[in-house]
Structure formats: C-alpha cells, structure tokens
Amino acid sequence: MDPVILQIRQELKNLADPQIRQTSQRFFKEQVTCYGVKAAAVTEIAKKYWKEVKARPKHKIFSLCEELYKSGYLEESFIVSNWTHALSGRYEKEDFAIFRHWIDTYITNWAACDSFCNHTMGDLIETFPEYIEDLKLWTKSDNRWMRRAAAVSLIIPAKKGKFLGDIINITELLLPDHDDMVQKGYGWLLKEASRRHQKEVFDYVMRNRKSMPRTALRYAIELMPKELKADAMRKDR
Fold this sequence. Notes:
The chain is mostly helical.
C-alpha cells in the first residue's frame, strides 16, 4: 500500500474521538463508519498530503482516491472530495466514467455524496456540460445516491445561475421519487437555482405544488419572500 495512505490513516486514528464518532451517527439514518475526526482537521490532513501527491500523474492520484474510498470511512471519502476538487483544472472527458463508478460503488450516505458531487462533479459538469444528459439518466438508477447525485452535482452551477432548463428537467424526472434523500436533493437544487431565477423556480413550484412532496417544497422555497412561501404552502395544495 502507498505510504501516503498509511500515513493518512495513522493521523486519522491518532485524532479519532469516540464522542465525535458517536455524535456523528445522529446525522444519518444509515450506519456510518467514521473515525470521529472533526471536519476541519480532516481538511488539514487532505491539504497536507495533497502537497505530497499533486505532482503525480492523475491516474496515480485516482488510484489513491479509490484506495481511500474502499476503506468505507467517511473522513477518507472527504479527503477524496478534497483532492479531486483540487484536480479540477486537469479534468478530461474520460474522468466522468470514473467518477460515476465511484458514486455508484463507494458512496453510501448523503455527506459523502454531497461533498463529492457539489464541487468535483459540479466542476466537471461546468467543464463538460454535455454530461448533464448523463445526469438525467441517473434519475432512473436503482441506487438512491446516484439519483441524489443527479441533483446535487448541479448545486454550484445553480448558484451561478447556470443550466436552469436542465435543472427543471432533472427535477421533473425526480419529482415522483419517494426517497426523502432524493427529495431533499432536488429541493436543495431548486433553492439554489432560485437565487438567480426566483420567478422561474416559484412558477415551477406553483405548477407542481400538489404533487411535490412537502420535504422538497420546503427546501425549494426556503430563500423566497414570506408571501411567496405562504402561497406555495397553502393548505389547498
């Protein structure tokens, strides 16, 4: 095993706090494996070892990332997200298939999903926007985290006002989904899109408020003025 991986794991073990590990579980419905290390400390470890690995060929860095993912530890997945985001200037089209495989194979909770998809996938999609069509296919996956990824991979572009039509399209595809993690994902996406496109998002919510789950609706209108929220949440929905 690469010495960098061994060193990272030793540092995480040294910092592990049973109390943090126990507290962390409260944020997840599923069982999560973690050392119990604060996010800020994990970020510092990621940055420290990035200095050691960043000059390596990208495929070698990807191999390290996969090794980290294979452990199943949440903190190690955060290091992957940090490193792959740092690689954003070096993305190539073929990286999409690798990232898709990682999401489908190794991601098993919302935190790992969001930390990877928000920045790494968001950057990749902005670089190669033709892959939005693939995100639309993910909405039909049997894997709940692939379906959530279809939405949360566009969170950062949505904040910038990009891809509104595709965002509405992905939301439409996910609208019948009964999984609350998926509902929260596309609700969050609509919320971020509303920063630049409030009217369009509000109009979409109003057209679909009778079929949109309350969980998703609350997320979608979170940034809107009180009067618009009241209209969307009326009991005659």
